[in-house]
Structure formats: structure tokens, C-alpha cells
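@channel anyone free to eyeball this complex?
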Amino acid sequence: MAVPEDLLYSKEHEWVRLDGDSATIGITDYAQNALGDIVYVELPRVGAKIEQFGNVGVIESVKAVSDLFTPMSGEVVAINDGLENDPAAVNREPYGAGWLLKLHLSKPDERNNLLAPAEYDKIAAE
Amino acid sequence: MSQPASEMSDGVPLIFELGQKGRANRYFEDAKPLETYLPPSVLREELPLPENSELDVVRHYTRLSQRTFGIDVGFYPLGSCTMKYNPRVNDAIAARREFAELHPYTPDELAQGALQVMYELERSLSSLFGMAAFSLNPSAGAHAELAALLIAKKYFKDRGETHRDKVIVPDTAHGTNPASAAMCGFHVISLPSDSRGRVSVEEIRKVLGPDTAVCMMTNPNTLGLFEEQIAQIAAEVHAAGGLMYYDGANANAIMGYTRPGDMGFDLMHLNTHKTFTIPHGGGGAGHGPLGVAAYLVDYLPTPVVVARDGEFALEFDRPKSIGPMRSFWSNFAHAVRALAYLYANGEAGLKRVSQLAVLNANYLRVKVAEFLETPYPETCRHEFVASAQRLKKEHGVRALDLAKALLDRGYMAPTIYFPLIVPESLMIEPTETESKETLDDFAAALHGIVETAKTNPQELFDAPTATVVGRVDETRAARQPDLRWRA
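replying in thread with the prediction:
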């Protein structure tokens, strides 16, 4: 199970790649493996303002429909349109082509509420 | 894009592929052309129906029927679906001419017997589940949930409390609960279960507030565990001004022991197709009576069957009602079946039903615990949850693979991957109508599969192989659904 060192994580199995006031968000390798084959991803619209740990979308796999939470607050500046035709990208490359959305962060300090790779690894291994 | 026919139907030709032009039966040969009856605007240019001989049609559907699996063929331990045997006598009664041939527009005075059936079923359900009144209008559980939430919405509107927009749903709830709430425009709050798989008073306090509308629960919950704190939970929800909704999917566990009304629920549904009698599982017509506490009776869907001076009547003029939830008098034949089942069992019989359903579930739970993890290892109610998590970690075999292998051994698979809080879950509900021998054989078959997982997992990955259709590609079916046949 991959837990890249350069990312931050939430207990709900999302990852964040920080770049100044921007962040890219996706679900972890552990999450995609637990969900199984993903068949549909519903994302917020560009321009939506979302709050940390709020419910912002839905991920549907062959097993279940699960809520998607945002690990940080901000305004959605981009969503991964490619997932509409290729939701399997989340399974193939959860940290790459399977990214979900990009945020302009409203509260960058919220990073302090997130987990470091080693901490997340411990939670996911349980 | 359509698939080649042979791939779609696994060897059985489709009805569209059978037959020849001009081979259709001749029953309507002398009928006048359709133009005689219908305006040109609704006539189609083309109507590509198959043209088959009657014999071909009979053979085709008989073959298909031989390939289906249902409770009449074998054990069907589908958790939370209560796939019990449906006594034939109930069907026979519903099929009597006096019921089956009654036109829905028959005036009340000529349909007294049918109305009496509806009235007595309504009264019996109210007494059995502790509600003031039931509506027989909704056609299924989720339909009743929708009706109940519409009632809650109207009730709060009448009280000037339209700000109440939150519906609380435990994380073990049936998926229909949050879906119904969202359909009604409520926001859903998911409530985490505690380490014992229950909703706790402490957790519910955290989410209650002036915006609380409804808390939807089932008891026993989907882990098959009784929510012992239900009375306190209901008191907390009521103190916050909210309503309690009982999802009756698991009512087979409680009949004669406790009543949702006594637990503090204000609204509930009963799936008579699960808890009583009515063949189900194929998506067929269901029956979801909706019960309410006294102060919500005026909101029930119309029509309501009432008794006045010894006469039964359908009452439509109820100003506070949310209106009809469906056409006519719902699935009336199901009301007949349900009442027949109720009267055949009586109060003591229904208590015995729940008793044996719980006994069977616990007997099977203890047997299964010998070879699979059971994350909540305490006395359960009508169903229990096992997990294939350890098998997945050690041998790569998932709940899905166990389920598929059960099909090869002549069993319907249990509900899998639900409830969501148990990884690799198998949710097993044997019901009261199965014998000890059936339960023993099923446990032995599942045990054999678990042993195979350790020695030859590939056999399980390939399963099923003894069924008409092998392992289906569920991912492709979801990603590229192909829902209709095209030439």
C-alpha cells in the first residue's frame, strides 16, 4: 500500500498535495483498494466553497456508494473531468491521474489538523 | 453499443432472436386496424416486436424460469431481506375471484369485503406495532420512507419549523434511509456506531439541535443487534423537537416482544413482503404500510379506510393529508396475503415466528464463528454479520469470492459488503422457516469454502462454474451499462 512521503492525509483516507495556497486532493491507495473498482465519481462544481471535513461528493464502487470528504477548506478551482469517462483512473493512479479536485485554500493553517504519512500509515494498517 | 446476443444471454437466445416474420399467433387477426381506436398522433410507424409461435414463447419462458433461483429452489440467507417461505395458502386466498377480479372503481358499498380486509389489516398492524394508525398506500419500504418524510416536512411546516432540515441516520442504516431523506430535500447526518455496534446517547446528543427533523433507525439494527438505549435515544430526539422513524426491515425479530410505538417511534413502515408473506426478491411488487403516532394521523396518505356505522368506506377528504402516494388502493392483493398470514399465525404465532428467526440466526452464527470472524460476537437477533477480512489479508480471498462459491453449492449468497462498517462483510439472515438440517448443510458448505480459500484460492476466484452464468463482470456492467436489446 503506497503512502507517498510528500503528502498529508485525513482519517477519512483523503490525501492533500500542498502548493502554496493551492491544494490538490484525492483518495489514498488504501481507500481505492478498500472500495474496489470505482464506477462513478461525483464532484463539487468549480467555484463551490467547501469546509474542512465536509461532505463534498460521492464515490461509487461496485461494492458501495461512499461519501467524499474534503480534508481542507477553500474554493474549488478545478475538478478532474477525465474521471467522468475513466473513473478507473482512481484505482490505477490514486496519487496521479486519479486526483479529484484542486482548491484555493481559505484556511491554509488547517494543514495542522491533518496526518503525516507515518501517522496515516499506522491508521490504515489497523 | 450492443453485445453479441450469445454473450448477453449465455446460450439462451433472446425472444427477439427467436421466431420468424408472420409467425405470431392469430388471435387478433380479425381485429379492426388500430386506427379505428387510436388517434394518429399516438400511433407508431414501427413497432419491432418479436413474432413467435405460442409454443416457442411457452418454451422460452419455461426455460428461463428453470434457470432462476429463489426461495422455492433453495436456501436464501440474504441479510435484511427476510427471504422466508411464503405459504401458498396466502396466494390461493388472494387469487380468489372475489378479490382478484374486483375492479378498482367498484363503489364502496359493493366492495365491503375488500375494504374490510384493508380495515382489519390496518387495525391489526396498529396493535401489533404500537402505532395509532397505518396507511396501506405505499408500495414498498423506501416508498413508505418517502411518505413518512413528506409527512414530517408537512408537520414541521404546519408548526412553522421549516428550519428543521437535518435527518440523522446511523452508519449501519439501510441505504434507502439517507436516499429518501435526500429525495425530500433534507440534509443527512451520518451517526457513527459505538464499539458495540450501537447508536449511543452520547453520540446522538452531539448532532441534535434546533435543526433536527427526523432520526431514522432500525431496531434490531443491520448488525442484527438490539439498540438497548432506544428509549433514551427517542427521548433525546423528542426533547430536541425531532421525530423518530422506524425502518421496519428487521421487524421479523421483534414481533410479540416489543413494539416500535413503545420504543418511542413516531413513524414506521413494515415490509409485509418481508416480515409476513409475499414472494419478493425479484424487484416485484412490494407492500410497505406506513404507521404513525396519534398526532400524525391526519397527515397519512389518502385514501384511508374507515368504518362508519358498520360500513367500510374509503375517505379522501382529509385536508392535512400529504395526498395519495400511488394509484388506486396500492397492491391490494398483498394486503389480502398479509392479513391471511396474520390471521393464520395469530399473536402467539407471530411471537413464535420471531422467536425461531432469532434462534436460527444464533444457531448459524455460532457455527459460522468456528471458521469466520464475527466482529460482534454476542447473541444476535434475526441476522448476524461475519467478515472475510482475515481471509483477504492472508489468502487474498474476499467476501465476494465466498459469495460466488456459495452459488456453486446451490445456495443464494448472503448480503455482502453491507453494513459498511464491517470490512468484507457477509450479512446472514436464515429466517424461521429453515430447518436445522438446512442450516447445518449451509454451515458445512461455507466451512468447506473457507478451507478451500486456504488451500486452493484460485478455485474461488473462478467461481461460480456450476451455474448457468459464470462470474459476471460487475465493473463493466456498472461502467458501461447496456440496458436494452437492439437489433
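from a first look: The mean pLDDT of chain A is 93.
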